[in-house]
Amino acid sequence: MEKLFFCTHWGSEQLEWAVFLRKVKAAGYDGLEVSLPADPAVQKKMIRALDDLDLKLIAVHWDTVSPDFKVHRQEMESRLLAIAQTKPLFITSHTGKDHFSFEQNIALLSLAKEISEKTGVPIVHETHRGKFSFAAHTTHAYLEKLPWLQLTLDISHWFAVAESYLEDQAFAVDLALSRTAHIHSRIGFTQGPQVGDPREPEWTEALDHHLKCWDKVLEMQEKRKSSVFTFTSEFGPYPYMASKRADAAAHQWALNNYMKDLLKTRYYAT
């Protein structure tokens, strides 16, 4: 099974696009995960630059935020259709709201499925605070209801929400792992979605809990004989980074490269 490693654009928006892409390519990434602008002309220029460097695209949908369900649904439909026109490898979506009803979030997930089928672009849904998938135990109900539902697993959010490494919710975690189509490799802990530095010994426990989950996902994917699996290194800038630092951009870059290299080494032979 081929493993592809993607770089997040989050935290590097200050860099000129072509400069950033050359940096991504030189660091050994296979592609980029990015929230594309709404302007189609700008999108085309960005994608052309990706193609020129043979970098693949994962598109992010996060910017549907209205608390009014009707407006939210309309904005989500418009945004997903626009993103799908760029023909990314897939779209990873921040879907719904934690305060929307179960039925409302089901409607949004079903809408995404319809758009995926219409456009031919897979849409997977990130586990994220504030969204339908904000916690393991609540996401379990959606996974049981919708057998086609696929996740971008960012389990750092769930560890923070539950204030635990979910040892007592294995039933929910295991189902989520079985539906994971993409991994965000950021390390969180029981009090937040991002540790200070996963290379430091005080964060070994948190790192190990994430690795155990990811190992299970890869084992499942291998058993299914999947042809490819994707990771995005997703350590973020302040305020995910606990404090503002003079070297914040360089520190974030170093952490994401560390995660990429760690997982490449860990999963290279599988």
From TrEMBL:
Species assigned in the record: Pedobacter africanus
Pfam family of the protein (one): AP_endonuc_2
Keyword Isomerase applies: yes
Ranges where the Xylose isomerase-like TIM barrel domain occurs: 21-184
MF-aspect GO terms: isomerase activity
Protein name, UniProt field: Xylose isomerase-like TIM barrel
Keywords of the record: Isomerase
Highest classification ranks of the organism: Bacteria, Pseudomonadati, Bacteroidota, Sphingobacteriia, Sphingobacteriales
SUPFAM superfamilies hit by this protein: Xylose isomerase-like
